[in-house]
Design a protein that fits this description.
The complex is a heterodimer of chains A (631) and B (291). Chain A is α/β, with parallel strands linked by helices. Helices cover 39% and strands 15% of the residues of chain A. Chain A folds into five domains: 31-139, Glutaredoxin (3-Layer(aba) Sandwich), CATH 3.40.30; 163-366, Rossmann fold (3-Layer(aba) Sandwich); 376-459, Ubiquitin-like (UB roll), CATH 3.10.20; 464-552, NADH-ubiquinone oxidoreductase 51kDa subunit, iron-sulphur binding domain (de novo design (two linked rop proteins), Up-down Bundle), CATH 1.20.1440.230; 564-630, 2-Layer Sandwich (Alpha-Beta Plaits). Chain A has a five-stranded mixed β-sheet with strand order 12-11-15-13-14. Chain B is built from ten helices and nine strands. In chain B, helix 1 (20-31) packs across helix 2 (62-75) and helix 9 packs parallel to helix 10. Chain B is elongated. Classes of the chains: A alpha/beta (631), B alpha/beta (291). The interface between A and B is large, with 62 and 47 residues. Bound molecules: flavin mononucleotide and FE2/S2 (inorganic) cluster (FES) (2 copies). The site of one FE2/S2 (inorganic) cluster (FES) has 12 residues of chain B, from helix 8.
Chain lengths: 631, 291
Amino acid sequence: MSELKLNSVIAGKKELEEICNKLISKNKNIKKTVSICCGTGCIANNSLEIVNKLQQLLKSRKIDNAEIKILKSGCPGYCEQGPLVKIMPDDILYTKVTPEDAEEIINETIINNKTVERLLFKENGDKTIQKENDIPFYKKQNRILLGLQSKIDYTSLEDYISINGYQAAAKAFSMKPDNIIGEIVDSGLRGRGGAGFPTGRKWEQVKKQDNTPKYIVCNADEGDPGAFMDRAVLEGNPHLIIEGLIIGGYAMGAEKGYVYVRDEYPLAVKNLKKATDAARKVGLLGKNILGSGFNFDIVLYRGAGAFVCGESSALIKSIMGMAGEPKQKIPRNSVKGLWNKPTNINNVETWANVPNIINYGSSWFAEYGNKSSKGTKIFALVGKINNTGLVEVPMGITLREVINDIGGGIPEGKKFKAVQTGGPSGGCLPDEKLDLPIDFDSLDEAGAIMGSGGMIVMDENTCMVDVAKYFTDFNLNESCGKCTSCREGLSRLSEILERIIGGKGKEDDLLLMEELSEYIISTSLCGLGQTAPNPVLSTLRYFKDEYEAHIKEKRCPAKVCKSLISFRINPDKCIGCGKCAKSCPTNAISGEKKHTHVIDPYKCVKCGRCLLECPGKIQAVEKVDTFAEAK
Amino acid sequence: MSVTKEKNKNGSVVVVGGGIAGVQLSSDLADSGYYVYLVEKTPSIGGIMSQLDKTFPTNDCSMCILAPKLVGVGRNPNIELLTHSEVKEFAGKPGNFKVKVVKHARSVDPDKCTGCGLCTENCPIQYKIQPKEEALQIPEIEDREEIDKIINSYKDLDSPVVQILLDINEKYKYLPEPVLKYISYKMDIPFSEIYRMVTFYKAFSLEPKGKYHFKVCMGTACHVRGAEAVLESIKHGIKDTKKDLFSVETVNCLGVCASGPVIVVNETYYGNMNSKNTAELVKKLIDKENE
Ligand SMILES: Cc1cc2nc3c(=O)[nH]c(=O)nc-3n(C[C@H](O)[C@H](O)[C@H](O)COP(=O)(O)O)c2cc1C
Ligand code: FES
Ligand code: FES
């Protein structure tokens, strides 16, 4: 992408537009763009190797690299089928590509303009689909943010500018700060970090304060396990966040922004660092940005693995170099935040929506979504679902559409049981709630929350008591320990659940849990404790029968809880191959060759190895849902 | 002890020391009708127990036991608190002692102070207990330069400790104590404060990691797909190996939920794990070492 190197400071809006136009006309010479997903998920599946191979091949074939552009893109969402390779302008999407396929892609698609059928997405295992937007996974999505990912190289400032990047910032500088905030208020944008607080109102609060300096923070701590939408945006389009922060800083009168990003995302840290450095070099960060007289800079701050640091007051403490313990809500951060100065905190996705709203206007944004919630939201659709990945949908779409149409339903023809939204502070919703529109208020009412966008699908093989225990333990581990009701209350809750899972539950345990949960909710200091019992309460509300099976019948219907299940070998099916006995880590399986084998239930640690070892055609090892039956 | 029946018997008691024993004793005495003077040398009552985390054997939090008692003592009209005070002289006999107590200057009007703590926050002078330079087991010289470099690279940041510790943790794969002491000395931050960071944040480890370090994802997506079995399989597999060969850590979501359950060995990601392929992976690593 050479001649047009961005090295000097961009003086103003006009120059920015000129550069953009130049980049666009230069890009017209490109015959083909190959964009390879290099998000963490695809890198784990060797996508960097594909990039290397492609580059080597181009070089060795002496193909002009002004004509063929190879770019490393952020995650476009369909991680299940990764590594993804997209070829434009032919609009071909190759899925599950391996480094060995690189040669064929160059020979066939790049040189001969042919599609490699073998690498296309296959619906129901046979029908191939070439275009990205025809794939069922993408059809119902509205990818305002994620759609940009595969168009740009993830750290290239040139690429970002060529898709009208930083023009929203330039436009914002020509507006009055109050009008910018007015625009955000009108758009109806609500915080994507969990609570769904109207963003414009929050900005107004900070703008109002006289105390200076003011700070703004991008919350990229993304602690919810099983959620990775912020990761994708940070890795794939860091300049978008930077632009959002510049606009916010200008509107609220803050000259310093912090990005608090969790250290478990090394690639996001790296890309953000590269992006801020590049922006600083051309004066998009620093003094007198785009000739507007406004100064702004961004500091990257890495978190160190504490979930509670996602909570805004804890995050502030953490940035100030203390242990991340939350404080009481009042005074609010908008009055006294970082170093006791007015501070505004927003989630990554919230910031990412800002440039679009400024560019296209609040009414454009408000077209998406329903009455109470506007715009699109990215969800991480994971768990027992066919199409795992990130989906960006307009608010108000139903859960059923997301799970069945986009997610493609449950694998192996199993039955759907529940969907968990909102991470460890959310709740589980059963089948009959699937027609609920996804928006902040409907989910709240049903006892789950929108949260930051994790959506974990569970099938009939998931035990809801086990899930409740999982989240309770998660919250217990992450509780900072400052307030008693959260620290001790969650310990007791976990003990009761442990008892139920161990088959020693008592009948009044359920009532006790409800009561205890109420106490924890009403007396905890911060959002962690106030929402921690939600998984227990929602499973109690919708899946009481499962709790009762554990307590009264000492049975785990989903065959998960170890104390309540056992493994046995069906004598009618066993052919005595001995594979299970050989693999058993505790020598619990005995039997002579070619004779039926038996599992000693008292030696068995229920690791499930035998089940996996038993040859697929035989399937003699069975899981049963009570302990007694094995004897 | 015989009780002398003198006429001018005094109905009051002096309790010396406001730790948990003194506090309990004072409230018991006050409840049985005595007037109690509770003398404590330090500016506040509570003693060592207020510094403890948990109590033996029930593991109850110690402050939860202590705090109501402290409040009780403070409110009891039969107890007079003499904090920041010392007993100087003792005269008389049982039933009628005369005790001379020196009250140290507090420089704050106790009747007006609400204990908001703002003055301590704003006091420009702070005493720090710092490890002395010569007492430090300073790490190797070459290391020291690198550590200095790390410290310097964050000099523009207002609060760089966590960032520095993250880099140190990355470099050594754990946080060696001498290095922490060195940082404490270099940056003039109390060692206790650094220690608090290290134990609060999960990314830090005070123990060296093994040659093969397993990160097992315990995030929700991995959990519902059976991460528990994977973890157990690893633990079972490395049970009888040398201590410095393997180490295991659990993390919450590595952001690659699509291929869960996920484990990372050193830097390599392995997806779609189950008890079978995990056991095979561990065995392969052990075999490689035994060659
Ligand atoms: C325990 C806890 C954890 C949180 N974790 C996150 C997080 O990882 N990322 C995030 O953006 N917000 C998180 N939040 C929400 C923040 O406190 C805050 O509401 C949010 O960053 C505000 O941004 P928004 O208005 O853009 O949503 C968390 C809240 C709580 C109580
Ligand atoms: S990481 Fe490549 S598709 Fe998500
Ligand atoms: S839950 Fe394991 S990688 Fe996300």
